[in-house]
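[09:14] KT: can someone run the structure on this one? pasting the chain below
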Amino acid sequence: HLGVRYRHTDNDLFFVPEKSFSNKYDLGYDETQLVSVLADMRLKLRNSLTADLGFVYNDCKPVAEAYAWYRPVVEGRLKLTYDVNEKLDLNATFLSQGGRYAKVWDKGPVKLNDVFDLGLGADYHVNDQLAVFARLDNLLNQKYQLYYDYPVTGIEFFAGMKMSF
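[09:31] RB: done, structure tokens below
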């Protein structure tokens, strides 16, 4: 799948720091034009091994602001899924984002470090409607910042269930 998307927004929402507090954010609005180039591909490598690849290039141009704050210019994803049997799937996911900027009042625009996130997971399908899952994220233990001065936690563990209706 290849695609190009265009969007014009009159009041696009951005997170901007509040001037009076160093660690408090406010909502800012700006008119934006966004052009995105997208590519997605699914490859069946073997009977039980599948690779999903995704790439997005975003060209977001705000009218008043210098950057589209906190929005990535490039995003990439690779997910490998191995079907152990009819009930159990194992997966590994690598995510990347780059070209993000933060607005900081006393420093001006600050380029945030690129995001590299590796995760492992498992899904156990109880039946057609119910699956339980477990996932470990940020196995590289990076302290990247989704928002300026707010690093993500280290390795994260998630568990839960998925229901289909």
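[09:33] KT: thanks! The chain has a mean pLDDT of 92.
[09:34] RB: yep, looked fine to me
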